Structure formats: structure tokens, C-alpha cells
């Protein structure tokens, strides 16, 4: 999600989203082996994945396919992330397949909104973590269109400091070649590499209520991701151009990007 986009949780018709539904189980059994056979992903550092307990996977973001690569690499452990509710609401066979795909990779539907909605999305992720489950998040907020690694927003650090969940940094390479931005069909000629770093315990930065703690914890997370991905650093936030003079002024002022 970009900084201009926020989401509000959409009720899950299958019940508690933290408990795997039959859709999730079916999708994982059907899609994970297929994805492994087709893309032959290289998975490094899998021993760094905690087998139980709350954990946040914080990854760079290069392609739509990232949200498939991470759950496949983490398997058999379920992992959840937020996705646009429109992916779950399509009609006919295509809509059904979309719902199966996103449910299979642990997506939880959310609606776009404004203001309080972004905080409500963070609250839903907090509840998932406090249930002992795993979530996957992209600190950059949205996909990198030029392949560089952008500055992280502080939402991931806020969740980690608030819940005490460790953060496992993830470095993805090759996903932008499998499915570049704008492509409708993934390439079958590319291989993906998923690297998991050692879990980060961030409480030494301070409480979640501290802006400085959130910022320094975020910088530690992004440094770990950079070490795994090897991307060029952008030293800027990944966001669309400001559309109004007021937005330009707001972005020029020093503040956190949550």
C-alpha cells in the first residue's frame, strides 16, 4: 500500500481470519506444489523462520508475485497479509479463482479508506499477531517500480514494538523478472530467490509510543532487508507524486510515514 492508500478491515465471511479456512487449506495443497515445480524457488535461511509464535515477515516489494513467493517459501507455516477486497469479490470462474488464490496465500480482505482506516488495518494485524500467528508486510508500502529499495514506513516497527513479535527480514530477488509491473501473465523462464535473515528483536529501541523508537527500529529492519536483497538504496519514500500544493507542503514537513 502506498502512503496515500489506507484500508479498513473487511469482515471475513469464513469467520476468524486467523484460523485457516477450507479455502486456505485447499489452495495451499493445490497451489504451493505447483508454484514450486514451475518456479523452482531458491529458499535461503529457512532455519531463521520460527516454527511457532507471533512473527512478522518484513520484505522488500518488487512485484505482485511477492505475495505468492513468501507464503510458498514459508510453508508449511501459514502467513497472513492484507489484500484489496476486490480480489475476493469477483464473479464467475475468474472471480472464484482469484478468491481461491488470495485465500490460499493467507490474504485477508480489506477495503480502501481514509484517516482512521489505516489504524484499523494495523489493529487487525495486531490481533493476528497476538493470536500467535504470522503476518507478512512490506515496509516500503508499495512496489518499487525502478528496483531500488526505498525507505521504510514505521508501521511494521510499531507492530513489532507493540506486540513484542520478532521481525524476520526477507530479501526477494527475481520476482520483478517473473512478473514485472503491468504484466498480465507471469514468465515461466525466471527463478525466484527468497532469503530469510535472522529474527530481529527490537525492544531495545524503546516503546511503540516513541516516534524515535519506531524510526530507529524501522531503519534496522530496512538495513537487514538491504543486506539480503542487495538493492540500490533510494534514500526516499516510495510514493506517487503529490497531486496538490497542500500535499507538497505536507510531504516537505518532517514527519513519520506510517
UniProtKB/TrEMBL annotation:
Keywords (alphabetical) are: Acyltransferase, Transferase
Domain of life of the source: Bacteria
Renumbered to this chain, the Basic and acidic residues biased-composition regions fall at 247-258
Q: Which GO terms describe its biological process?
A: phosphatidic acid biosynthetic process
InterPro entries documented for this protein: Plipid/glycerol_acylTrfase (IPR002123)
Residue segments, region Disordered: 237-258
Gene Ontology terms, cellular component aspect?
plasma membrane
Give one GO molecular function term.
1-acylglycerol-3-phosphate O-acyltransferase activity
By its UniProt entry, which Pfam families does this protein fall under? Acyltransferase
Describe the location of the Phospholipid/glycerol acyltransferase domain by residue ranges. 55-175
Name of this protein: 1-acyl-sn-glycerol-3-phosphate acyltransferase
Q: Write down the species.
A: Microbacterium album
Q: Which gene encodes it?
A: plsC
Amino acid at each position: 500500500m502506498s502512503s496515500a492508500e489506507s484500508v479498513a478491515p473487511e469482515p471475513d465471511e469464513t469467520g476468524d481470519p486467523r484460523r485457516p479456512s477450507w479455502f486456505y487449506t485447499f489452495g495451499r495443497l493445490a497451489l504451493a506444489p505447483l508454484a514450486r515445480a514451475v518456479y523452482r524457488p531458491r529458499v535461503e535461511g529457512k532455519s531463521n523462520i520460527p516454527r511457532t509464535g507471533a512473527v512478522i515477515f518484513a520484505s522488500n516489494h518488487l512485484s505482485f508475485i511477492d505475495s505468492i513467493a513468501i507464503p510458498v517459501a514459508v510453508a508449511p507455516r501459514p502467513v497472513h497479509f492484507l489484500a484489496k477486497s476486490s480480489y475476493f469479490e469477483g464473479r464467475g470462474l475468474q472471480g472464484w479463482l482469484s478468491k481461491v488464490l488470495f485465500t490460499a496465500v493467507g490474504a485477508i480482505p480489506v477495503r480502501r479508506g481514509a484517516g482512521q482506516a489505516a489504524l484499523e488495518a494495523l489493529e487487525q494485524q495486531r490481533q493476528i499477531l497476538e493470536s500467535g500467528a504470522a503476518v507478512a508486510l512490506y515496509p516500503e508500502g508499495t512496489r518499487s517500480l525502478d528496483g531500488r529499495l526505498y525507505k521504510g514506513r514505521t508501521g511494521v516497527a510499531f507492530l513489532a514494538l507493540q506486540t513484542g513479535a520478532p521481525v524476520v527480514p526477507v530479501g526477494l530477488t527475481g520476482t520483478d523478472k517473473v512478473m514485472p509491473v503491468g504484466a498480465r501473465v507471469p514468465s515461466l523462464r525466471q527463478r525466484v530467490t527468497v532469503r530469510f535473515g535472522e529474527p530481529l528483536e527490537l525492544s531495545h529501541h524503546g516503546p511503540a509510543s516513541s516516534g524515535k523508537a519506531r524510526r530507529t527500529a524501522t531503519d534496522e529492519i530496512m538495513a537487514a532487508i538491504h543486506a539480503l536483497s542487495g538493492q540500490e538504496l533510494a534514500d526516499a519514500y516510495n510514493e506517487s507524486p503529490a497531486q496538490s500544493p497542500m500535499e507538497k507542503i505536507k510531504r516537505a514537513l518532517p514527519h513519520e510515514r506510517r
